[in-house]
Amino acid sequence: MTNPNRTPAIAATGLRKAYGDKLVLDGIDIHVPTGTVYSLLGPNGAGKTTAVKILSTLITGDAGDIRIAGHDLAADPQAVRAAIGVTGQFSAVDGLITGEENMLLMADLHHLSKAEGRRTAAELLERFDLVEAAKKPAQSYSGGMKRRLDIAMTLVGNPRIIFLDEPTTGLDPRSRHNMWGIIRELVSDGVTVFLTTQYLEEADELADRIAVLNDGKIAAEGTADELKRLIPGGHVRLRFQDPDAYQSAAGALRDITRDDESLTLQIPSDGSQRELRSILDWLDSADIEADELTVHTPDLDDVFFALTSGSTVPNQPKEAVR
Amino acid sequence: MSSLALAVRDSHTMLRRNLLHVRRYPALTLNVLLTPIVLLLLFVYIFGDAMSAGIGGGDRSDYIAYLVPGILLMTIGGTTVGTSVSVAMDMTEGIIARFRTMAIHRQSVLIGRVVGCVLQCLASVVLVGAVAVAIGFRATDANAVEWLAAFGLLLLVAFALTWIAVGMGMVSPNAEAASNNALPLIMLPFISSAFVPVDSMPGWFQPIAEYQPFTPAIETLRGLLLGSEIGHNGWLAAAWCLGLTVLGFFWSKALFNRDPGN
C-alpha cells in the first residue's frame, strides 16, 4: 500500500448470505472510499445488520469477495479486525461492570500500557460526557448513555473504519442529534464510517453516499441528490372545491396530472422561487383560482417509497419508514 | 507480540473481567457453596447415625470421614454449574460479539472463563473443607505427597468439569436452559459413592455408579486422605479427567467458532 488513501476502506463484491431457504443478501456490491460516510438504508429485515455482521468478521458470508482497508477478509480476518471498530445494534457493553471498567477492559484488549489506557479511557469518558456516570455499573445507564459508552469503547483502539449498525434506533430526538454530532466529529478526523439506518433523514444528514437495500438487493445507490433525481421531481399541487373551476383549470393547463376524485392538479416544478412565480403568473393570466396551493419538493422519502414499494416485508412496523 | 504472549495477555484480561464479576456479584458464587455445606451438615447431623450404621462403622465421626471427599467433589460440580449459567448469560450479551470483532486471541474468552472457574472451584473447596474440618473431619492417613496428590486430583477434576460446563453453557440459549443442561454435574454425585458405598446399591445399578466420573475421583481422594484402597480408581479418575478435558475443550472451541446466531 503505497498510498493508503487510494485503497478503498471497504470493497465488497457479490456479497451473498442465506439462512436456510431465506436469502438475506443477494449478491450486493459495496464500495466505500476512505474517509467518507456510506449509509446502508432500508426497512427492517432488508439485510442491513447481516451486511454489517459479515463485513465486520462476526459471521461468514456464503459468497463474495471482501477487502477491508486493503486486507482480504477471508484470508486475514485478524488484520481486518485490527483496522475496524464496530458498534452493533444491541449495546455491546458489559452491564455488570462500570463504564470506566468497560473502557479499561478495551484498553487492555488493545494492549495499551496501563498509563496510556487510563489516559485514553479518561479522555473518551470526558468527550462522551460520561465522567459522572463512570463509576456506576453500565446496566444502570439510559439508552443514550449506553450508546455513547458503546461508541467510546469502539474508539479506544483508534480504528480508521467504523461500522455503526442503527446507532440512533430507540434514542430520543436529543440523543439522536448528539449522536449525529459524534459521527460528524469522527468523519472530520478522517475516519471512514459505514452506517446503517432506517431513517432517511439520518442518511440525508450524514452520508456521502447512500445505498437503498431492499429485499437483499441494492435498489439504488448514489448521493442523496442523485437518488432524489431518480424519481419524478417536485410539483405544485392545486386543490379546488368547485368541480366547475377544477374542470376549467384542468382544460386550460398543460403538462398536468389530474386527480378527479380529490379535485387536485399537479404541475411539475422544482419548487424554486422563479418557477413558482411563473406558475402563479400563468394561473393569474388564465384566470384560475385554486382554493389551496402547496409546493412539494422531492425528498428521500419519495425515493424510498418508490424503490421499496411492492416489496412485502411481513410485520413491517410503522416507524420503519419515516 | 507473539501469538503465545497474545494468548496469555488476552486470557489474563478476560480472567480479570470474570473475577471482577464474581467480586461485584458474590451472591451467585455463595449460592453454589450453600448446597454442599447444607448437605454436609444434613447428612452428618440428621442422617449421620443411620448412615454410619450403613457403612458398617461405629459412630458419626466415621461417617464424616466417609462423606467429606464426596462433598468436596460435589462442591466442584456445583461451582462449575455456576460457570455454565454465567457463560450462557454472557454469550447472549453484545459484549461477546464485540470481542469477536476485535483483534484479540480468539480463545482468550474461553480460557479466561476456565481459569477463573478453576480458581473459584479451589476457593470453594477450601471453604467447604474448612467447614468439614470445623465439624471434625481429619485426614487421618495423608503425608505431604498424598496431600499434594489430593490437591492435584481436585485441580484436574475442576479443570475437566469446567470445560464441560463451558460447553454446556455455550450450547444453552439462556440461563435457565444452562442450569437444566448442567444438571448431571449436580446429580451424578448422588448416584456415586459419595453418600453410600456402591455395593449397597441394586446390583444392576452398581456398574453405572462405579464407573461414572465421580466415583473413581471420590475413591481416589478417600484413599489419599484416609488410606483406603485406591486400586484401579486412580487410573480411572485420571482417564476421566483427561477425556472430559479434551472433549470439553474441543466442544467449547467448536461452539465458540461457530457463527453466532442472529
Automatic annotation (TrEMBL), chain A:
GO terms for molecular function: ABC-type xenobiotic transporter activity; ATP binding; ATP hydrolysis activity. GO terms for biological process: daunorubicin transport; doxorubicin transport; response to antibiotic. It is found in: Cell membrane. Its EC number is 7.6.2.2. It is a peripheral membrane protein. Keywords: Antibiotic resistance, ATP-binding, Cell membrane, Membrane, Nucleotide-binding, Translocase, Transport. The keyword rRNA-binding does not apply. GO terms for cellular component: plasma membrane. The keyword Cell membrane applies. It comes from the Bacteria. Residues 10-240 form the ABC transporter domain. InterPro entries: AAA+_ATPase (IPR003593), ABC_transporter-like_ATP-bd (IPR003439), ABC_transporter-like_CS (IPR017871), ABC_transporter_ATP-binding (IPR050763), DrrA (IPR005894), P-loop_NTPase (IPR027417). Pfam families: ABC_tran. It is an enzyme of class 7 (translocase). Gene3D superfamilies: P-loop containing nucleotide triphosphate hydrolases. Belongs to the ABC transporter superfamily. Drug exporter-1 (DrugE1) (TC 3.A.1.105) family. This is ABC-type xenobiotic transporter.
UniProtKB/TrEMBL annotation, chain B:
It is a multi-pass membrane protein. Residues 27-259 form the ABC transmembrane type-2 domain. The keyword Transport applies. Keywords: Antibiotic resistance, Cell membrane, Membrane, Transmembrane, Transmembrane helix, Transport. It comes from the Bacteria. The chain crosses the membrane at residues 25-48, 63-89, 110-135, 147-166, 178-198, 235-256. GO terms for cellular component: ATP-binding cassette (ABC) transporter complex. One of its GO terms (biological process) is response to antibiotic. It is found in: Cell membrane; Membrane. GO terms for molecular function: ABC-type transporter activity. Belongs to the ABC-2 integral membrane protein family. This is Transport permease protein.
